């Protein structure tokens, strides 16, 4: 047990946050160790709703937002826990072993956090950890030391640890997800839109060579719909995976023939259940 155990136990903020349940729980019950209210800096922070965990996430930079959206969109992801605290006793021991100064705030040991702990449905990788850093921060020796403490911590638990920089953000994929994400409503399923799936399938089969943006404008005009209504409906169907397309294709240039029918079996089950 570290000699400084008494000193860090006197840190009232740490004890208070533990009592609040921070860094504990899963899914909708998880509470991040650090929230937007706890930090003051010039960067951009974000509160965004996570549809898989059904709760609001606290993200401390644009790059964290980008990483979160990519993780959230991945169909194998089952849960994401942000600002996850590492056990202080273990990180102090790791720092001593590595001869690295442990992070402190006002002479009290500071709890190290990982940006994202991600659970998946993959047997070979049921959990992994992501730390988000802008690439220029990796030139700082102190940053590297802190990352080494974190890396060793997860290595002791046989959990993969990755560093995510702006160079790992595929621009087109990120823009597509940013376009699709607002269409993910909390209710998730809108029967009115689901009932229109066959309508769009029929239209798409007849106009395969047209851009999606162009064909939805034609639909709005021919059926006297509000301008943009068809595109919003198609976007929601894609966001909910009833239609799929290669996210490497910019949505503005997406052709109808590049859209594939997604989880139709589930769609049929929903409609069948709604009519019982």
Q: What would a concise description of this structure say?
A:
This protein has 276 residues and is of the alpha+beta class. It has eleven helices and ten strands. InterPro entries: Restrct_endonuc-II-like, TnsA_C, TnsA_N, tRNA_endonuc-like_dom_sf, WH-like_DNA-bd_sf, WH_DNA-bd_sf.
Describe the model:
Keywords: Endonuclease, Hydrolase, Nuclease. The strands form 4 sheets. The chain has a 4-stranded mixed sheet with strand order 3-6-7-8, with helices on both faces. Strands 1-2 form a two-stranded antiparallel sheet. The protein has a two-stranded antiparallel ribbon with strand order 4-5. The C terminus is likely disordered. The chain has 276 residues and is an alpha+beta fold.
Short descriptors:
2 domains; disordered C terminus; four-stranded mixed sheet; alpha+beta; two-stranded antiparallel sheet; elongated; Arc Repressor Mutant, subunit A; 276 residues; Trna Endonuclease, Chain: A, domain 1
SSE topology:
Layout lengths: L4 H5 L2 H8 L26 E5 L4 E5 L2 H12 L3 E9 L2 H11 L5 E2 L2 E2 L3 E8 L6 E6 L8 H16 L4 E4 L6 H10 L10 H4 L2 H10 L5 H11 L6 H11 L3 E2 L15 E2 L2 H11 L2
Parallel strand pairs: 7-8
Antiparallel strand pairs: 1-2, 3-6, 4-5, 6-7, 9-10
Helix pairs in contact: 3-6, 4-5, 9-10
